[in-house]
């Protein structure tokens, strides 16, 4: 039976990467009470961006949505590392999506669905989240997408 | 006597629209403890944007501020739908304003006041909020403004 | 012994400015439970921006990082004013960094380190925070950087 986030990840063929260490003087996740705030994640796959550039420029909506999915995988890896297991996630409260794009781009929501759809696929109903999605002119390392997360977690 | 958010809305001649359903795999609002996180709202009026384009481009500061006000109306509609009544709102904690604009635009604060002023007009002193306002190159559907909200609400 | 945020500020030669009043219908900080949300701060020094313009344009990474540091000083001033003392800060939970930049700029993280490094220098280990850093086309008043903060604070 597929009834846990870990089992759903496995059924999707996703192996969580090692949680990436921040490259500067900050941390990947901070818990306060039953909230866990996870830093903005880039679509890094084994240390490299899955794509670089901008939506409306050289990056297609499909490639952008895949990048958003990789951001979500990295958010889940950070959750797993911070909590010692995904079963402690009670709710995906909010995802914030930043889409690097040209001024005429309008399909931000479709790109961000790459992250949102995976959140629901992995966490089920508690994966349904509030969300804000906006365009940005550029992101660190020329990434096309960055996604940050707020989660409700079990007390300790 | 005007002493409730609903009465103040009526005095302002504002009829709350039906809360818009998200167009993708996310939800309009998530409650965690006494916090309610509401997804970024666009200035949709009966399913259409009140304006489209950018500040510093074809959208004037006045039209932008009106768009921000419509975003706030939609946030209030989401609050009302999520809580079953505005009297359960204890505090507008934070509004995040994203202003689609040209690189030379500098009057973000004036645009965002369209949302902030309405928050205070409807909720009174508890409507006074923390706020971050930034420019963005583009927003979903070519909207000129998007506003997200964080609210403190009564326990259930 | 340097074992308090106030002592560390003094050791760094930083005199906190008077907390700036918001220029519109919002407030600098809102507390909800043990969370304090502080509005986005600009790099204002005695009422003037430490720099204006964009990264990748006329503003160098060094000047941008210094601007981020001034934003952090202003966040700390707001904390001090809201709490009546920095010893009530339990944790810097999250910093959100908005970097006004050209579309080809990629060193957002280095700029934002100006804020993050000061947070850790002043608050020590509890100063280590989650963080999201993104580019924006423009900011209020043509500021190069804006930083917002979320803090865990003592109950009252």
First-residue to last-residue Cα separation of chain A = 28 Å
The average pLDDT of chain A is: 95
Provide the CATH topology of chain A. 60s Ribosomal Protein L30, Chain: A
Given as residue ranges, the uncertain stretches of chain A (5+ residues, pLDDT < 50) are none
Main beta sheet strand tally, sense and closure of chain A:
5 strands, mixed
Fraction of helical residues of chain A: 25-40%
CATH class assignment of chain A = Alpha Beta
Q: In the CATH classification, which architecture of chain A applies?
A: 2-Layer Sandwich
Q: Decide which structural class fits the backbone of chain A.
A: alpha+beta
Assembly category: homotrimer
Helix count, DSSP H or I runs of 4 or more residues of chain A: 3
Order of helices and strands of chain A: HEEEEHEHEE
Tell me the CATH superfamily of chain A.
RutC-like
Shape of chain A: globular
The chain pair forming the largest interface, with residue counts per chain, is: A-B, 36 and 30 residues
Radius of gyration of chain A: 15 Å
Please give the number of β-strands of chain A. 7
Any idea how many domains of chain A?
Answer: 1
